[in-house]
Design a protein that fits this description.
Layout: E1 42-57, E2 68-77, E3 81-92, E4 95-103, H1 111-114, H2 135-140, E5 145-153, H3 156-159, E6 168-171, H4 177-187, E7 191-192, E8 203-209, E9 212-216, H5 218-222, E10 256-259, E11 262-274, H6 277-283, E12 299-303, E13 313-318, E14 330-336, H7 352-360, H8 367-376
Antiparallel strand pairs: 1-2, 1-13, 1-14, 2-12, 3-4, 3-5, 3-7, 5-6, 8-11, 8-13, 9-10, 11-12
């Protein structure tokens, strides 16, 4: 007889619920419909806090078309990334493995706080200088290369964060291998601003490590219903499994780690990208963001909330799956709630669509008027 097999049923999307290996987010997948030109695909910033904006709804089929609506938004401070290296990959039986790394001639001292084994060039005459590979060595191994990524570090000092250790990430590129090599050669040792990666009104995916809440019971962790007050124990699961077979299934709610896990949220719209002093002052509250402080460099304003507490590193990527319906179709930003200035825009009571319909509306005649007009021989 054939052997019957039945795999387990149920979603394991968030399993295992354990701590994240690292706090700095990274991306493995990128959109298929990439731009033809060579361009960076992801970025790294720091979450400042939430606010809300007032803007006019431009969705002509919506109920609030033409009216001023409030939209929740998140502010992410994005100081320019410093490109300190280039990494080449080759394909293998288990995905892709790095071949070589090329580093810039001048590297910030802060990188030694993160990478303790970073090679230094020899200063003494007797000491042999450390061997660094160049782009000429990379072009010799061009046939083996499957992908090239930039090695970048953040500059938290520019953002005013009370930490010196930078966060290091890989920046993926679009285009052919030749285009990637030329782009990496041009940007090595330079800064990469967020304006070179994203544009306003674009959709992006956000990845970050959520707030850590430690070990929690099944009531808080999974929302299990509590037992009645007469029960011996109230905050437990009534039955965790059968006697035969004596096992505990993975679907049963159990106590364990809650929070501090990698989560990705899709299709967050970029409402604003700015680095001007006026916009920074307008987006910063009078007393600063809670647990963060004041904005000092360029920032990104996203719709909705994102995972993680303030000051946490947040990864931004071009949207992998574009939304079927365009969300938050707005006509500019009239007012940011955290600014000191008051809103100068008067909220319209009626939408433009309703006004247009009222102008075209024909006055209804009564039955008596129609009879009188028929007797006189007037046309309706």
């Amino acid at each position: 007889m054939t052997k019957k097999s039945r795999p387990h049923a149920g979603s394991k999307a968030f399993y295992p619920r354990k701590k994240a290996r690292k706090e700095t987010p990274s991306f493995r997948t990128f959109p298929k419909n990439l731009p033809k030109e060579c361009k960076p695909l992801n970025f790294l910033g720091y979450k400042a806090g939430m606010t809300h904006i007032l803007a006019r709804d431009a969705h002509n089929k919506g109920v609030t078309f033409g009216q001023e609506v409030a939209v929740p938004a998140t502010v992410i401070e994005v100081p320019a990334l410093k490109i300190f290296g280039v990494r080449a990959y080759k394909k293998s039986g288990y995905g892709s493995n790095p071949i070589t790394d090329i580093f810039a001639e001048k590297v910030d001292r802060e990188i030694e706080r993160k990478i303790h084994s970073f090679k230094k060039k020899g200063k003494k005459k007797k000491e042999k200088p450390a061997k660094y590979k160049t782009f000429s060595d990379l072009e010799k191994e061009k046939e083996k290369i499957s992908d090239i990524k930039l090695l970048a570090l953040t500059q938290p000092k520019q953002a005013g964060l009370p930490k010196k250790t930078p966060d290091i990430c890989e920046i993926a590129l679009s285009g052919t291998i030749d285009e990637k090599i030329s782009f990496a050669k041009d940007r090595l040792g330079k800064e990469l601003p967020v304006s070179d990666v994203f544009k306003e009104l674009q959709f992006v995916d956000v990845r970050a490590v959520t707030k850590g809440k430690g070990t929690q019971g099944p009531v808080k962790r999974f929302g299990v219903k509590m037992h009645r007050p007469k029960a011996k124990k109230r905050r437990i699961v009534g039955s965790i499994g059968p006697w035969n077979p004596s096992t505990v299934m993975w679907q049963v709610a159990r106590a364990g780690q809650m929070g501090y896990q990698n989560r990705t949220e899709y299709n967050k719209k970029i409402l604003k990208i700015s680095s001007s002093a006026e916009d920074i002052a307008e987006a910063t509250p009078a007393s600063g963001f809670k647990h963060y402080g004041n904005l000092k460099t360029s920032f990104v304003l996203l719709t909705g909330s994102i995972p993680g507490p303030a000051k946490r590193a947040v990864g931004l990527r071009l949207a992998v799956r574009a939304p079927s319906v365009e969300k938050h179709k707005l006509e500019g930003i009239d007012y940011i709630a955290t600014s000191k200035k008051k809103s100068k825009v008067k909220i319209e009571v009626e939408a433009q669509k309703v006004k247009a319909e009222e102008e075209k509306k024909v006055e209804k005649k009564s039955v008596e008027d129609e009879i009188a007009a028929a007797v006189k021989g007037e046309k309706k």
